[in-house]
Request: fold
Amino acid sequence: MIKYGDLVQYTKENHVNWDTDLFSVLRGFFEQYSPSPTLSNSPIQQEIIFPTEGFKEPQDGEYGTQDLINLFSL
Reply:
């Protein structure tokens, strides 16, 4: 949660015109005051595991709740 005083201080320090779009002001405020994540130069390596069995369609053609759970748990 931002404090109103912090936003007012930001507008004073950056000489923000009062006709400026509020979302532009807030975007600049958050870019300045929120810590930006540091990106490393090394690529992220991730192992992808594929299931040994594929999803099997129901014999009667009707998908049930358990079929959906099985599908999304692959």
Residues 4-33 form one domain. Residues 49 and 74 are 10 Å apart (CA to CA).
